[in-house]
């Protein structure tokens, strides 16, 4: 019984090591000055354009229009600035 | 003498008629719309882009100057039609964007648009804190999806280098880092907020 238990725990550790999953990352968030931490979260797709009668901007990008000025690129070789490529359903490797 | 005066009178009359006709033509051109852009956010808006819905590029920034928090500005002489708009703001930590699609602008319409803190996107910075490994793939997708999407980096991120990604809709994201050596690193539930830069130190 003890042997089965230890085998089970060893296999769990092995699976975790092989999958390369990291649970404790160093993450920080810097908010622009004056922004309350308890701000409202992302709007839903239904709210994209109209909230009541008010037309308000939303952070959801629904089209991929080109910028006239091009992407902002940093000069420093070690700092790269890119625009996020939004997720397309089914694209890429399975999770 | 009398005849000369009469000729002058006709000339002036004709000129007046022509001028009034010209002004009539101009009044037709004036049947355009106006947008009032209200900045109700804490960010300073430095770009406003307006493009017809079928146009593939945003075109030039049409803001004459920065629009500070609490201010508003009017954009006049907009031909009637359906438009997409984008705003941009340069913050202390990153650049942020906001979008509004399919806005119908009618002739003589005065349309107020509103910008709030939640109107803006957020940003993510990935710092390679290793001494000898390079990042060759960065995959960032919303937590609720089943695949990893596209590689977000176009070139390798060397040791001590960083990748600054902008234009995220606020949400929780899963992140996969692919190294040139060793196993992939996977991080779950990374939060990205409006007008905020999330920094992830990976090693």
Q: Which sheet architecture does the biggest sheet of chain A show?
A: 2 strands, antiparallel
Write down the oligomeric state. Answer: heterodimer
By CATH reckoning, the class of the largest domain in chain B would read Mainly Beta
Could you say what the CATH topology of the largest domain in chain B is called?
Answer: Immunoglobulin-like
Give a topology summary.
The complex is a heterodimer of chains A (95) and B (203).
Chain A: H1 2-19, E1 26-31, E2 50-51, E3 54-56, E4 79-83
Antiparallel strand pairs in A: 2-3
Chain B: H1 2-29, E1 33-39, E2 45-52, E3 72-78, E4 81-90, E5 95-105, E6 110-115, E7 122-128, E8 135-142, E9 162-168, E10 171-179, E11 185-192, E12 196-202
Any descriptors?
heterodimer; A: 95 residues; alpha+beta; two-stranded antiparallel sheet; 1 helix; 4 strands; B: mainly beta; Immunoglobulin-like; 2 domains; three-stranded mixed beta sheet; three-stranded antiparallel beta sheet; 14% helix
Describe the structure.
Chain A is of the alpha+beta class and about 100 residues long. Chain A has one helix spanning about 1-20, and strands spanning about 25-30, 50, 55, 80-85. A two-stranded antiparallel sheet of chain A has the order 2-3. Chain A is elongated. Mean pLDDT of chain A is about 70; it is low at about 15-25 and about 40-50. By secondary structure, chain B is mainly β. Chain B folds into two domains: about 35-120, Immunoglobulin-like (Sandwich); about 120-200, Immunoglobulin-like (Sandwich), CATH 2.60.40.2890. In chain B, strands 3-1-6 form a three-stranded mixed beta sheet, with no helix packed on it. In chain B, β4 (about 80-90) and β5 form a beta hairpin. The chains are: A alpha+beta (about 100), B mainly beta (about 200). Chains A and B meet through α1, β1, β3 and β4 of A and β4, β5, β6, β8 and β9 of B. β1 (about 25-30) of chain A pairs antiparallel with β12 (about 195-200) of chain B, so a sheet runs across the interface.
């Amino acid at each position: 019984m003890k042997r089965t238990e230890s085998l089970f725990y060893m296999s769990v550790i092995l699976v975790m090591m092989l999958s390369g999953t990291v649970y404790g990352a160093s993450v920080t968030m810097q908010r622009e000055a004056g922004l309350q931490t308890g701000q409202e979260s992302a709007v839903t797709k239904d709210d994209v354009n109209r909230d009541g009668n008010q037309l308000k901007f939303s952070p959801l990008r629904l089209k991929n229009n080109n910028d006239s000025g091009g992407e902002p690129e940093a000069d420093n070789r070690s700092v790269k600035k890119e625009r996020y490529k939004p997720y397309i359903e089914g694209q890429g490797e399975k999770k | 003498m009398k005849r000369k005066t009469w000729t002058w009178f006709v000339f002036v009359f004709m000129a007046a008629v022509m001028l009034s006709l010209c002004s009539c033509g101009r009044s037709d051109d004036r049947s355009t719309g106006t947008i009032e852009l209200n900045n109700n956010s804490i960010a300073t808006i430095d770009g406003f882009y307006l493009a017809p819905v079928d146009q593939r590029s945003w075109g030039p920034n049409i803001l004459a100057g920065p629009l500070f928090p609490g201010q508003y500005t009017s954009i006049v002489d907009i031909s009637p039609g359906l438009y997409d708009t984008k705003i941009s703001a340069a913050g202390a930590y990153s650049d942020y964007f906001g979008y509004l699609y399919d806005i119908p602008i009618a002739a003589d319409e005065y349309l107020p648009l509103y910008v709030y803190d939640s109107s803006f996107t957020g940003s993510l910075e990935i710092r390679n804190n290793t001494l000898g490994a390079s990042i060759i793939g960065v995959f960032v997708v919303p937590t609720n999806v089943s695949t990893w999407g596209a590689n977000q980096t176009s070139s390798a991120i060397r040791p001590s280098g960083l990748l600054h990604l902008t234009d995220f809709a606020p949400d929780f994201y899963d992140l996969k880092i692919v190294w040139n050596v060793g196993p992939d690193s996977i991080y779950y539930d990374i939060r990205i907020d409006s007008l905020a830069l999330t920094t992830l130190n990976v090693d």
